[in-house]
């Protein structure tokens, strides 16, 4: 959906007077994330109060309304309103869908089934790139791109009407027979009774706690934070959500066409097509997660994933540094070839213009018109206007405004793909699996909501600052910064996140109650327990 903004008319994108195009783009992209923060916060309470199914239905309605508002928007402020509605729906769905799937799944395949949610999200992103590519030359391009996003919400809404409520939520609401009938469809006949007994014991303990604390929203929140099991669950749940966002993935997905242009691919269509590849790899990674997460475990998948992410980010930083260092020089002759008033003002007033290269030109908010004979040879630094862009293209030259022609561009795309492959099977899907199974039933909605709020707040911070960071630090410095965040995230995952593979919800609760330490820090007397590092 974010790619659609590239195709909005120039005068439309300038509809927010006094703001740069970068600021407008960051605000429009980030408003959905801001909406998701509130959607996740209230979604947790709605989940526990009214159920998982109504929460998903409300999320579908919000998303559909937002998509229609954006498609019909006469000005950028209207798109921002639509993005907020979309964000509210996304925030509610982001923590409800994994929770719903998790509570309706047998423990032995719970991870794989929750991973299907990640597959459908990444598959949807891949499909959105395909649709955007198809609409590139259609009349009203960006309106179609934004409006068609409402169709999946309509489809999910009507399918959801035919699905049952979560059996665990029903049991807690004293709808025992209804819960039993659903569990009988999920578990073998000989396992249903044991599931019901474990569920009853867990809920009886929770209800005793509830009588002491109360059941209104504020009392429940206080009770959650006072509960040692919930707190330890939040240490793990919040850790993985924050680490996920500070790996930079959503920035890569939001701005992948721009990042590809940073690598030296000037054409919007080429950048969008290459972004399609990265989005497809993200979907493939979700399939890998489905195959291995219940075999090798949540914790191991995330740790291996983080090592891969850090390696790729460091290499990407080196690649972008080399690309910037070897950017084509600026030729005074080429720059004045078009007309003196066409040349970049900062270049004309520079004290040492002979030291300028393409990156110097772009940092000065100008554009690079490549040499007609060889785009790696010295070219022109021109003012960034649509007329000069047309003039540059008219002389069979390439116009670069986001990145510079580079022989390293292919490497950047390759390691961007490897970064996605490292991210998707582990840090892409597993944090949502962990958060769907690590909290006690009574606090599962609120616990998942709190962790999701942290996820979306970090998402907002990263998406709001990415383009600004690339201008201040360069692409190389920005990727290196994210690598540093990932090192910190890896340490926190190792220390705070236990393994929950194959455990019943009640067993997870018991494990957290007794406390968790990585294997290397356990005493000899506790190393035989069911925790593994």
Describe this protein with a few key phrases.
Growth Hormone, Chain: A; Major facilitator superfamily (MFS) profile domain-containing protein; 3-stranded antiparallel beta sheet; MFS_sugar_transport-like; transport; 3 strands; 533 residues; disordered N terminus; mainly alpha; elongated
Characterization of the model:
With 533 residues, the protein is mainly alpha-helical. It has two domains: 1-9 and 23-163 and 213-323 and 409-499, Up-down Bundle (Growth Hormone, Chain: A); 328-402, no CATH class. It contains 24 helices and three strands. The protein has helices at residues 10-13, 21-50, 52-71, 76-103, 110-134, 141-147, 150-160, 167-172, 176-186, 189-213, 217-226, 228-246, 249-254, 256-262, 268-296, 298-325, 332-335, 345-349, 358-363, 386-394, 409-428, 430-437, 444-496, 505-514, and strands spanning 366-369, 380-383, 399-400. A three-stranded antiparallel beta sheet has the order 2-1-3. Helix 3 (52-71) packs antiparallel against helix 6, helix 3 (52-71) runs antiparallel to helix 7 and helix 16 runs antiparallel to helix 22. The chain is elongated, with a radius of gyration of 26 Å. The model is unreliable at 1-18 and 525-533 (pLDDT under 50).
